[in-house]
């Protein structure tokens, strides 16, 4: 499958990672909309991005529904469409909740996971699971999903995310390349990404990286649009306004899109 992905590219803990702590950090240009629709680069339809919370999102595209890191129980997905494809990045509780996956209606879904997540899933899901390691890819529903590295660099953070265990993902969808970072720092593999249309970038300490590091990485690989997400840490919420300012100053052609990932918080 690597060969397919390469040809296509030519065309186009620990539950503690999510803390319940609150912060009064100010977020600039925080949208009040619960979802946003972005038109694709061709006539194949629109990609609708629905933020659920923290690292959890839904994409809708051409009648295909993709769940990213579904957690929060069935209540978090009330009123949402049944998933066709589920991507899980890592074993931590803000990315992988077996209880949530079991509670959702996933009878028609394919589930793409790293081996560490597959090891924690019961046999009932085996027919649905595709295991991807870093550097591997899989085509489902005319979407090529690439698994890319996500890990920590700082010595004090190596215990959180070791190299090779979890996956970031790039979804190749008819001219669009959509990147979800998962839990990572500004690793060389992220800085070397190419032709990314939309990038979902984490930033929360002590688990991932600072807004400054996140901005520096984004300026290196130059996505067309960047969506800060996964920015609640311990004990504070990362100041996304700093990230936005640094990206806008460094490259005004990169559009920073702020969605409402923590609707229960007051800033």
Describe this protein's structure:
- With 267 residues, the protein is of the alpha/beta class.
- The chain has one domain (30-256): Ribonuclease Z/Hydroxyacylglutathione hydrolase-like (Metallo-beta-lactamase, Chain A), CATH 3.60.15.
- Helix content is 17%, strand content 24%.
- The protein has six helices and 14 strands.
- It has a seven-stranded mixed beta sheet. A seven-stranded mixed beta sheet has the order 8-9-10-11-12-13-14, with helices on one face.
- Strand 6 (110-113), helix 3 and strand 7 form a beta-alpha-beta unit.
- It is globular and about 50 Å long.
Summarize the entry for a quick read.
This protein has 267 residues and is α/β, with parallel strands linked by helices. 17% of the residues lie in helices and 24% in strands. The N terminus is likely disordered.
């Amino acid at each position: 499958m690597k060969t397919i992905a390469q040809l296509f590219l030519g065309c186009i803990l620990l539950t503690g990672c999510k803390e319940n702590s609150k912060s009064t950090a100010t977020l600039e240009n925080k949208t009040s909309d619960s979802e946003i629709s972005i038109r694709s680069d061709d006539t194949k339809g629109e990609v609708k991005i629905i933020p659920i919370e923290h690292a959890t999102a839904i994409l809708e595209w051409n009648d295909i529904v993709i769940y990213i890191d579904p957690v929060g129980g069935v209540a978090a997905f009330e009123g949402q469409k049944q998933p066709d494809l589920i991507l899980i990045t890592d074993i931590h509780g803000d990315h992988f909740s077996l209880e949530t996956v079991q509670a959702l209606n996933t009878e028609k879904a394919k589930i793409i996971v790293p081996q560490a997540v597959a090891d924690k899933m019961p046999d009932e899901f085996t027919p649905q699971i595709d295991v991807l390691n870093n550097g591997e890819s899989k085509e489902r529903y005319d979407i090529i999903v690439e698994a890319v590295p996500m890990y920590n660099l700082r010595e004090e953070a190596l215990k959180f995310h070791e190299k090779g265990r979890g996956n970031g993902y790039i979804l190749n969808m008819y001219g669009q390349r959509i990147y979800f970072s998962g839990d990572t720092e500004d690793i060389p593999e992220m800085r070397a990404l190419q032709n990314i249309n939309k990038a979902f970038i984490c930033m929360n300490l002590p688990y991932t990286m600072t807004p400054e590091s996140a901005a520096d990485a984004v300026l290196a690989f130059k996505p067309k649009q960047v969506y800060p997400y996964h920015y609640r840490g311990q004990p504070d919420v990362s100041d996304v306004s700093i990230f936005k300012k640094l990206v806008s100053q460094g490259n005004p052609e990169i559009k920073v899109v702020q969605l409402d990932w923590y609707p229960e918080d007051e800033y």
